[in-house]
């Protein structure tokens, strides 16, 4: 946790990150899953180690994220806007999906190259028997 705080403070230049606690992280985790991803509260409580989902909901969920408020108001028709704002969490998930796709493409490419190299080796081994040593000298 200390390393993560220092890294965040160094990357952003914001020393407030040095004050982040494990409790803050749990609150952020629960809030993102519930409000931004719509995950079932009982599942979040089980995943986060809370025995009582109602306690977790009362003490840990923080609905005061600008994008969450904006999205809810737009969905209720209070704001006449389209909400395409991505949270930091959604941006990270998007980048992870892009990386996963790149890795899958790389795996397929490597697998295809391995098959080609294997078939070339087979052809070479077979053709060696058809030639005499004198032909190569």
UniProtKB/TrEMBL annotation:
It comes from the Archaea. Pfam families: Phage_integrase. One of its GO terms (molecular function) is DNA binding. One of its GO terms (biological process) is DNA integration. Residues 89-116 form a coiled coil. Residues 9-62 form the Tyr recombinase domain. Keywords: Coiled coil, DNA recombination. InterPro entries: DNA_brk_join_enz, Integrase-like_cat_sf, Integrase_catalytic. This is Tyr recombinase domain-containing protein.
């Amino acid at each position: 946790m200390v390393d993560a705080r220092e890294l965040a403070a160094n990357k952003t230049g914001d020393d407030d990150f040095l004050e982040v606690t494990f409790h803050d992280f749990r609150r952020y985790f629960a809030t993102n899953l519930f409000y931004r991803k719509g995950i079932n509260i009982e599942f979040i409580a089980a995943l986060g180690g809370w025995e009582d989902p109602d306690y977790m909901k009362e003490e840990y969920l923080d609905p005061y994220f600008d994008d969450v408020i904006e999205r809810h108001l737009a969905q209720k028709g209070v704001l006449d806007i389209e909400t395409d704002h991505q949270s930091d969490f959604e941006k990270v998930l998007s980048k992870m999906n892009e990386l996963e796709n790149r890795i899958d493409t790389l795996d397929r490419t490597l697998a295809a190259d391995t098959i080609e190299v294997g078939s070339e080796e087979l052809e070479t081994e077979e053709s060696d028997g058809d030639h005499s040593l004198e032909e190569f000298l």
